[in-house]
Amino acid sequence: MKRNKVSKLQMRRLAAGVTIALLAGTCQVMADQSTNPISESEVFTADRLAQVVNKNNMPKERFKSVAAGILGYTHDKASIKTINIDMAGHDLTLDLTKVADLGTDYSAYGIKANNKTTIVVDSNKTNPGKNGTITIKAKTLWSPSGDSGSKYTAAHGIAVGNFSQRFNKKVSEDLVKTTINADVVIEELRGGSIKTTGISSMDCSDLAINGRFTIKPGAISLMKWNRGDQSKTYGIYMIGSNNTISITSADIDDSKNGSLSDLIKTDESLWGGKTEKNVLRIGGGTLKVKENQKERYLISAAKGFRTFINVNQDGSAIGISKADLQGTIRMDAGSEAYVGLTAGSKWVGGTQADIKGKMNLFLSEGGEWNTLNAGQGSRVTRFAGDAKGGAIYQKDAGQLVIENYSGAGKIYYAHENAGMAAEDYKAGDTHIGSAAEGSRITVVTDNKGIVDTDKDQVYKALNALAGKLYYDAYKNGEKKLAGQAEIAEGLTASSKTLQMRDLLFKKENGQGYVEDKPVPPANLDVSEQIVEDGLGSGNMYWMNNGYKNGEDDDHRYVLKSDTTIKVDLSNPKTLTYGGSQGANVANIIWGDPDYTADGFIDMNGHKLTLVSEANHLRHYASGILSHGGDLEIKNAAGIDIDIHGDKNAKSGIYVWGQGRNGASLTISNDNQAEHAVKIRNTAAEKDAAILVDGRSVKDGGSAKLVIKGLVDVENDDVSVIQANKGDVSIGGGKIIAKGDKASSLKINNDGKIQINGNLSDRNVLTAGAVKHDVQIEGNVLAQKGRLGLVLNTDGSYIKGLIGTDAGTAGQTYMMLSDGASWYHEGKGARTDGIKESKIKNLEADGGNIYQKNEKPITIENYKGNMKLFYKHENAGTKAEDYKSGDVHIGSAAEGSRITVVTDNSGITMTDEAQIYEVLNALAGKLYYDAYKTGEEKLTGQATIAEGLTSSSKTLEMKDMLFKKENGQGYVQGKPTPPPLVNPVRHQIVEANYFAEEARDFWSKAGVYDGKGHYKFDHDLSLVTHAEDDPVTTVNDNKFGNIYWNGDVVGDIDMTGHRLELKSITERLPKKNPNAITVYSGTLTIKNVNGMYIESDPKGSLYGRGILVAGVRGDERWKSGSGHAKLIIENDDDPAHAVKIRVKDTGEDFGAIEAQKHNGSALVDIKGLVDIDSKMWRAVESHGAKVSIGGGTIRGTDVASLAAYTGGSILVNAKLNDENKVEATSATRPVKITGDVSAESGGHVMLGLNNKDSFLKGLVTTDISGINPDTQKWGKIPGKVSMVLANGAVWEHKQVGVGYYHKKGADFNYKNRGKGESIDSHVTSLRADKGILLQNDPHKLTIDKYEGNMKLVYEHENAGTKAEDYKTGDVHIKEAAKNSSVTMMTDNSGITMTDDKQVYNALNTLAGKLYYDAYIKGEKNLKGQAMIAEGLTASSATLKMADMDFREASGQGYVKETNPKPNPNPNPNPNPNPKPNPNPKPNPNPNPNPKPKPPIIYGSKETQMMKGAKTAMTSAVLLWRGNNNDLQRRMGDIRLAKEENGIWARYLGGKNKLDKQNTYLKQTYDIAQVGYDKKKGNWTIGAALDYGTGKDTYANGTGKGKLASLALYGTMQKEDGQYIDVILKGSRIKNDYTVYNEMNHRLEGKYRTNGLSLSMEYGKRMKKENGFYIDPSIELTAGHLGGKDYDAVSDYAGGKKMHIHQDGINSVIGRIGLGIGKETERSNLFAKIALAHEFGGKVKSIFSAENEPTSGTEVDLKDSWVDVEVGGSWLVNRNTYLYGTYTRNFGADVSSKWRIDAGIRFSF
Fold it and tell me: Angle CA(1728)–CA(1732)–CA(1735) in degrees, nearest 5?
């Protein structure tokens, strides 16, 4: 295939574009996939276009084609069709705009679901975070009406339903369902002249759009509007019955275009059926038609339809979304609408004046209804407002009627003139028919034209305003509605109230009015501080307005309403304390060290809100500053303190005691949650939310805070509550620390905090009179002081550690009762620093501690009862299964008790032994320290429960005891058996006879459950001697370490440990050792990390590593049914292999034997084996099945594998459904050395499926013996089936001694002589890039051959004569179609420039292959004959067209050519030749019907040369990639604060090269360390690095190493300029191994030195906001020294290839541009750079003895784009972290990824 060349400029532009797209996160690539419409399930692999372009690519529906992007339809009336579409994060475009070109027969549908169809579209089913969008656009054609059959076409975005019912005139009951889990955009819908809709739903349909549904403005239109009611456009259209549409969010704005007839339209059934059970649900969004019009409706609903917008399922409550609505709602009788307007939602419009249906409106605070409705008024069936109510702006001239009213709301009226007359209010009256109990309403107008000081005018205005409201039910005596008339600063919900009167209603007509007396405003909202500092300037407002009584020194305030005090720190009028250079500012400043202000603020049951704007650099904001005297805030219905801003703050409550007077604050709130003291401080810099500081008090002074009720306090970065030599007392509530820097409570300098109780001076903790819920989240830092904490309700808890990382520790006193809990988990500040949680005294009564942290808990004194919960891993039987720390009880009061609990996860509750182990391990987590000194006052239980909650059901419980030596808990159970000491000289025996002694031993050892299950938690070594009188077989004295019989189904669970078995005969030679013997039953050895099995049959006849024999018992010995199975569940780790060694000390032995006998037998080893057997057969099967995963099998005597009498042996193999052998694993190695045999129906199956797999040996199925049926001597064949694929090798060469037939008792193993050698015979060989080495004189016959392989022969002399090939022929009896064989020999002795000699050698080579079926006319086998290349000599290939074979014998041959000697030693100088593309060299068939193929010479660059040059190129890349820019190496050193620095860095990445006949993949890892020192503007330093690389080549692998020493200097100027210079010397190594096609190996060790110099210049141009751009230029020059060395091959004599590697020069220039954001603590950046390599030529010369000298060159000159993102982060003043991620684009050497990460310390 030819490729158009792309210029470097084009490449750079493309790379830059890709780079920018990647940075923006928007790069997507469209894959090649269908653009046809969708009618079946599909998963996208790229963005998808579904397009109708002609009549042929439209899907069928019924008897016609339908123009639809997605069509769901089934012709089968009895079934339901489901279409599942997974967009997989890609976009879908449904384009039906070309339907208009198809004529007037077609309407267009984006999505159509019809006739028993379900369609499900998922935006991204597996990764919902990455979502695609569906875009729909369609056009159809209009034709004039007439009688000639003209059609009227429409366009629909989504159509769901039984549309055929319009013709059947009946309602379908078959649900058509469509679910779209994606956003949908209607871009364009142009119909002909009839209804065109965004969504159409008809009869028994269910459409759910779980995303945003958008119709772009003006998207829907018709070509002609000439069909009356049929020419309509709707956003959403529903007709018929049983329709449901659910839309998460909609965006349909037709307020400007006016292209929709109605936005939502519902119609009755066309055919007269019932219209019922129709529901439309829209979660929220924008739904708008033109404002203030009658013709077009927001909703036009027929009977039987219910519409829900932002309400819950049944329309009983408001939703949580926002809705922006505009237009009129029209409803027929029998229809209902439910609309919810939340904060931020609004509706401009109303209802039709004569509305017949039911309109329900929910309005919450922040929601708005503007009733402007073309003067027709509105009628609402039901109105529900929340506690504060939303806003109704009555702007329509028509009357507003609310039939049923509940909750609260405000109605706003604008007025003209002074608003004193009814005619000044132009909007219509408001009538409330009836109201629910407790309903409230406020009518509001603004103060425009009203003189606020004119009481008469104010009264008349309020009275006229009240008269706009009518309470109709008041005439009948209903009195459930109350309210106010109000004059505000403006007509918005946030406008300040100026005047207010209570509403009254007239008996005669229910009209509202007010009396002539003022009502105080509900809220006082001022910017005046309360300051009591003796100067009088901070309380004048309060005195003048009657809130403060008496003189200035009378510190008493009485507030009569909810009060908000706002403070702006930047306002110069704001009063401060402490001077202008760092003052404290608070809403309330109370007292002074020299001025005692004892007094109170009486809130009279109202709420106090304090708001501070922290916007001053030197002033610190607080809510309350108590600084002298005693302040009580009493009768408070809550205090809300809000501090926010981007500057400094102090605390929400700051009690600052100084001098002798001190300071105290008491807040007398109650126990209601809504009356809590709430503090939120979100300022940029701040202190504790509550800070009580008494460090500056003098004798007699103190700092004290008492909050009698509840608190609701949150804080981040610092403590929530801090007592710094101060006292804090809090009733209860929430104390929440957020983030990893905050603590919930902090006590230092002898401070005290008590919560929900009283801690006396004598450290006696008592609970408060009222139980409060206490909820604390965050670590408690009790550094020096006392904490009294009472948790005594089921809703109380603390989450966090309680301790300190300081040298001193405070004292914590805790009560934990009535279901309260302590969740001991690290949460917030100092989690890593706190070593343990420490409690001085803990009194418990039904409390819980959840130990969830690895830190221990120490309780010095304990009293009462509680539960202690632990989570476990695995089965919880070991101490290490419990990751959380221990709990220590120092001393306990009399009668104290603790229950330690874990759940039952992973525990077999029927296993008594396991339950004991769990309870004992659990009990061991509790220590009773005083028990060591004789105290015995604490008892406890260890419990297993259903779950880890206090209410979980108890399943098992045992009493706890404590150890005398250390106080650790434990439970009594079976005596702990002494540990087993390896080696263990006992058998494992499961049998019906003689098993009791062995079972008893293992039971006493605690590893046996009496039911066939053994479990060991350590490595086990079993040794069994014959002299130990082991259990043996009755007839033949077989014994072993494991003897299994009696139909027992059991297992040996090694729990991840190793098992070793040794069976030894020694001095009793008549007994036959078999390490594992299974006669009946099933033994599974599981969770085993490797096995070693050894059998020593010295002096005995018979010995095996594993013997599985199905021997059925009889009436005398009822030993079992004879179904024997051994399963070993190891894995593919070579270290976990089953290693079997049987010593050659006996006469008949092997590693594994399976015998069917009169039962059945199975050996199944899941993973690898390591078998080495030097006598008889390594693995044999007699009528049984042996399955081995893989591994090494050596059987160098008779056979490695032998299958008899219907038995089978499978190694990495199985039979597929076609009864063909296939490999079970592509990666598992199979290494077999030894001959393979099968007879009497036996079957050996081998899966050699990778380059690490091989078979060395003959394969024999033609074995003679006595036929059991005929009792005659003859061949009794078996089968051998083999997979030879992916570089696997079969070396066909005899390994064993031949085959023996035992004839009579005189046969003696030691004098057996040489066995019979038999030709090889394979039943089936399936090959795919396999290699067959024919290295044996025996003939090889393959019955059935399939695939392709290389058949390799060695030759003597020149290989031109048959006698030059000493190994046997290969016969293929039959071949599958398209099978091929490539025959190969090497070039030794052949003059490669002599064409005739080359031909003769190839022809003779071809003659070694026979295709027997060719005689009968089968011609399925093709192939080639090839002389393989040498180290530097090229190959020569002669293609065998249609595999020429002799018709009489099937012998392969090639036609003789007329060669001419060619003196040119390099016949083909082209290093990349291509075979002759013409498969018929002579196009004229007449003169020569069988053309003579030419000799084709291979590349002058051999595989060995290619591999070696690739290895050296990989070393160059490892060296070149270690030259880097400043940011990668050291991060942003501007963050370093000190002069000296040490740093360490890791860099790693992945490179790929696939050019110039060079293929490599390289991963590398490099570590660097450096030291530097600042000298003025320069930072001078040195660095060392060491790295490794792992390389994969096309034909080999390599391991590289790099070591370097670098000197560097970095200059940085104040104006942003910088220079970076690096001088580096390097040592590079690469050890590589490469192979050629004949699997010959070449090993090389390349070593060289390098020197490089890198210089970078740039300038960082930074903005004030920290953003910067950073252009830079860099030049790196380097040189690698040349090298001469020898690589050694495995050719005869270790033939060497000499390699001369030229020196390599590399010059890389890079121009880059970075953008980033710099702060004081961090620097984040992205960078793009264009790079070019000016040098980089890798030249090599190769030579070898008797072979030509050749050279290669790899040119690394190239241009590319680097993209880099990264940053530096300052951890503390002396430490910062840095890292970058880099990849390139457009380069020959592709850097797939590179990561640099480091840390720098400065000092």
Answer: 155
With helix as H, strand as E and coil as C, how does 625-670 read? EECCEEEEEECCCCEEEEEECCCEECCCEEEEEEECCCEEEEEECC
If you write DSSP's letter for every residue of 1343-1383 in order, what string do you get? EEEEEEEEEE---STTS-SGGG--SPPEEEEEE-TTEEEEE
Q: Which residue type sits at 686?
A: K
Q: Are 1164 and 1125 in contact (CB under 8 A)?
A: yes
Looking at beta carbons, which pairs linking 1337-1340 to residues 24 or more positions away fall under 8 Å? 1337/1366, 1337/1367, 1337/1368, 1338/1258, 1338/1292, 1338/1294, 1338/1368, 1339/1368, 1339/1369, 1339/1370, 1339/1371, 1340/1259, 1340/1292, 1340/1368, 1340/1369, 1340/1370, 1340/1371
Burial status of residue 1142 (CB atoms within 10 A of its CB: 0-12, 13-18, 19 or more): buried
Cα–Cα distance for residue pair 182/969, rounded to 1 Å: 58
Interior angle at CA 270, CA 266 and CA 274, nearest 5: 80
Distance separating alpha carbons of residues 320 and 312, to the nearest angstrom: 9
Cα distances (angstroms) measured from residue 555 to each of 548, 629, 1257? 8, 10, 109
Beta bridge partners, 1625, equal 1605, 1651
Amino acid at 443: V
At 1080, the amino acid letter reads S
How far is residue 670 from each of residues 631, 633, 675, 1480, measured CA to CA in Å? 17, 12, 7, 104
Distance between alpha carbon 1728 and the CA centroid of its chain, in Å?
A: 29
Cα three-residue angle 1146-1150-1153, rounded to 5 degrees:
130
Q: Quick one: which of 1780, 1803, 1661, 1720 has its CA closest to 1534?
A: 1720
Residue 1085 corresponds to which tokens in the numbers above?
A: 């050895």
Amino acid letter for position 1626:
S
| 1284 and 1327 Cβ atoms separated by less than 8 Å | yes
Read off φ and ψ for residue 692, nearest 5 degrees.
Answer: -115, 110
Kindly list the averaged pLDDT for each block of 10 residues, start to end, along the chain of length 1803: 39 40 35 76 94 77 71 68 93 92 83 89 87 94 53 86 55 79 96 90 93 96 77 93 95 92 87 79 96 89 94 91 96 95 96 93 94 95 88 96 95 94 95 94 92 84 95 95 89 70 92 74 81 71 74 76 90 72 82 80 92 90 90 94 93 90 91 94 93 88 93 95 96 96 94 96 93 96 93 96 77 96 94 92 96 96 96 94 96 96 91 88 96 94 82 74 94 70 92 89 90 94 88 78 94 96 74 90 96 85 88 82 96 96 72 94 97 90 97 93 94 94 96 94 96 95 70 80 96 86 52 74 96 95 96 92 95 96 87 85 94 94 84 56 80 69 42 41 39 52 84 88 63 65 90 89 93 89 93 91 92 88 93 84 93 92 90 93 91 84 93 91 92 92 84 91 91 88 91 90 87
The Cα 410–Cα 364 span in angstroms is 11
CB atoms within 10 A of CB 509: 11
User: Where does residue 1155 rank: exposed (0-12), middle (13-18), buried (19+ CB within 10 A)?
Assistant: buried
For 1529, the token pair is: 């190496």
Q: Residue 100: what are its φ and ψ, rounded to 5°?
A: -60, -20
Cis peptide before 983 (omega within 30 of 0): yes
Question: How many angstroms separate the CA atoms of 917 and 942, rounded?
Answer: 11
For the chain, what's the residue count? 1803
pTM of the predicted model over 0.90 = no
- Calpha distance 1749→1433 (Å, rounded): 8
Residue that is written with structure tokens 């039953």 in the block: 1081
> Residues with Cβ < 8 Å from 721, sequence gap 6 or more?
688, 689, 690, 713, 728, 730, 735, 744, 745, 746, 753
DSSP 506: -
